[in-house]
Amino acid sequence: MILELEDVVAVYGFSRVLQGVSLAVDRGEVVTLLGRNGAGKTTTLRSIMGLVRLLSGRIRFRDIEIQGKPPFEIARLGIGYVPDDRRIFPDLSVEGNLLLALRHSPRSQERTWPIERVYELFPPLQRFRKRRGSYLSGGEQKMLAIGRALVTNPYLLLLDEPSEGLSPLIVRDLLRALHEIRDSGITILLADQNLKFARQIAQRGYILDKGRIQYQGTMEEIWENEEVVRRYLAV
Predict the structure, then answer these.
(1) Domain assignment of residue 1, yes or no
(2) Count of Cβ atoms closer than 10 Å to residue 5 Cβ
(3) Which of 117, 120, 127, 179 is the most buried (most CB within 10 A)?
(4) Domain that holds residue 212
């Protein structure tokens, strides 16, 4: 087991957003968090990264309890985080963004994901390597955010709404890239509203609603359960 959450209660201000979330991710798995907007998916990922205050519960990554640790320490343990708003540095070039992440990676000497490999995974980034981040399209920024996480050589990659706002062509390329990332041995936990997208990459899923896990199962079990899909995922 690479990641375990046990009865996690997370708060924003005085509001409890997560109401006792428990989940587990095995090494090499791709697992998805599903649910409508406001269900708690993003908060779950932010809780793992130490970006949200926890009232109670435990989070273990590679048998180390990480709740209460600052985000930079959690990242250095080997978790790459790609937020839904990407958070690239707009005034730096594509290559500048990647080099900055590489410079601060504790595992950079292992060179599992050098910049050249990121360029092979996302060819547009190589073409635009001198272009400033603010001049990239939304899809290109998403590629850069994922590439920036990869050059830190993570054991676990957290992806928040990776398919949101992307054209079908870009989504197709993203799925190809995620399969390659998975095949390289990186475990992936992604949050997405798009069941069709998640089904093409994930093996298992957890459905969140009102800060609680309402259903879990294989992606085929979720796909075939019309009542669960209608109740928690239909828009």
Answers:
(1) yes
(2) 23
(3) 117
(4) 1-78+189-235
pLDDT digits (tens, 9 = 90+) for 175-226: 999 999 999 999 999 999 999 999 999 999 999 999 999 999 999 999 999 9
Amino acid identity at 208: L
The whole-model pTM stands at: 0.93
Residue 116: pLDDT over 60: yes
* Number of domains within the chain: 1
Of 212, 112, 101, 207, the closest CA to residue 146 belongs to: 101
| Residues across the chain | 235
Which residues have a Cβ under 8 Å from the Cβ of 124 and sit 6 or more positions away?
A: 140, 143
Q: Return the CATH number at 37.
A: 3.40.50.300
DSSP percent split of the chain into helix, strand, coil, nearest 5:
40, 30, 35
Tokens in use for 21?
């979330």
What are the structure tokens assigned to 193, written together?
Answer: 């509203």
CB 21 within 8 A of CB 209: no
